[in-house]
Amino acid sequence: MLQHTVIEHPIPPTWNNESEILILGSFPSVKSRETGYFYGHPQNRFWRVLSSIYEDVCPATKKEKEAFLFRHHIAVWDVISSCEITGSADSSIQNVTANDVNILLDGAQIERIFCNGQTAYKLYNRYLFPVTNRSATCLPSTSPANASWTVDRLIKAWIQIKQPV
Q1: How do the domains of the chain map onto residue ranges?
Q2: Residue range 65-107, pLDDT digits in tens
Q3: Catalytic residue among 44, 99, 102, 146
């Protein structure tokens, strides 16, 4: 049986002063924590969806993923800085401490904020919206747990991140 564990977020945000879009997840999965980068589970569709939207090669390595994000002016981070969690289950998240996304909002040209899934969106509205006063758009989760959403369906929902403000 998996135990509830307090975990500090181990991955720094990927962003630079040219970032225009901020995509926030909830908290890195066990696989992402093991690989040391966002959306590290091979079944997570995040990188496939983004590469399709931007008509770019799907990045495989951490270096390729960072280059992809910089090339397309995308910042990626998570809402949670630390929490108690069992495995990778968002449903088990408790005792949340939120990340200070104002670091990114003040240091970049973020025009829009998107949340990858309902959990990230709910956490954003609870912990970060009161601090940022900037609304976020909820997109369907690219997690393999969201199996009812095919890659094609995710692409159709996520295409809005590429549309101008």
Answers
A1: 16-162
A2: 999 999 999 999 999 999 887 877 777 888 899 999 999 999 9
A3: 44
Contact 144, 41 (CB under 8 A): yes
CA distances from 72 to 65, 115, 124, 125, 162 (A): 11, 17, 23, 26, 9
By CB neighbour count within 10 A (0-12 exposed, 13-18 middle, 19+ buried), where does 10 fall? exposed
What predicted TM-score, i.e. pTM, was given to this entire model? 0.94
17 catalytic? Reply is no
What CATH class is the domain 16-162? Answer: alpha beta
Rounded to whole angstroms, the Cα distance separating 131 from 56 reads 34
Contacts of 20 (CB under 8 A, 6+ apart): 73, 74, 108, 109, 110, 111, 112
42: DSSP letter: T
